[in-house]
Structures are given as structure tokens and as C-alpha cells.
Write a structure and sequence with these properties.
The protein is mainly beta. About 0% of the residues lie in helices and about 55% in strands. It is elongated and about 70 Å long.
Amino acid sequence: MAVVATQLKKGQCIKYQGETGIVLNVEHRTPGKGNALIMATIRSFQSGKTKDIRFASGDKVETVNAERQTLEYSYSDQTGHHFMDPQTYDTVTLDASLLEDYAEMMTDGLSVEVLFLEGKAATIDFPANVELTVTTSPPGIKGDTATAATKEAIMETGLRVQVPLFINEGDRLKIDTRTGKYVSRV
């Protein structure tokens, strides 16, 4: 389906220059002379790169059928990561390559939002933070507080995180999914 460039909206999925992408930002500009133009910031699903694309106000843009769905993580195996649709209880298997940055942050029941393009998973939006339990953490050394002293802790999923000295085994921690770093104790 094609729409006029002036009807583009943030979050829409479109085809442009042989690629498929999501519109991150749309800005209508009217220069002093000439016709109005639309500046759209688009992130490509193929390359992951962000581009600024200029459209004339009358240009036609092809939109892509996209659907957002909230899924809950169940388990992983050699075929991929398995999620359950909480509405229908259907199992959806996602390719491991889509989740490689988050594999050590997934726990049972974790809700994620998946964007499907024409029936195929394109992107996954993780929550900003996850809560994980510390399984292994050496005791902190007293007196080593002249600097912001940290130690390594291993979480229930195998994720290794630098944490403050006061963190102990069994503590629940909030971890930032974008950086993989310790945020706070829960």
C-alpha cells in the first residue's frame, strides 16, 4: 500500500531505496522558497543503520504490513528461542541472531515486544531493565573503598556483571539491558 509522504508517521514501516525500515522521526519542512518537504529518519532492518531521507510532499511511499505483538520468553534450544503468545498460548520460535545481544538476560516469563513484518520477526524491543538473581559472587574486601570498588558477579543466566562490594549471592539485581551493567539492588 502506498501513502503520500505527508502521511508518514513515527513507528510506520516502509520500503525505500530497495530496503525495508521503520520510521523513527518525521519532520515537515517548508523552506522560504519552493515546495514543502518531508525529512524522515529511518532505521533499516537489513543493515541496522539509520538514514535521513528527504521526500517531496507529493512523493508516494510504500508501506509494509507490520504487526506488534507482546510475547513471553519460555526457553531456548538449538532451534532458537521459544516465546509464548499470552493471548493464544501459541509458541513462536525466534532466530537466535535476533536475540544474540540479550541471550544472557532472558528469564522465564520475560515480556518482549516483537515487530513482525509480513509475518516475519524483524525487531525485538526488550524492557529497559531486567531483574536477575546473583548465583556466584566472591565476598567483598573491606577497606578497599578509596575508589568505587567493584567485583564480578555471575547471574542466574550466566551473565557476568561488575557490581559493588556489598552485593552477595542470592541478591536480586536490576540490570540495564542496553549496556548489560548493574543498576541497583531490588
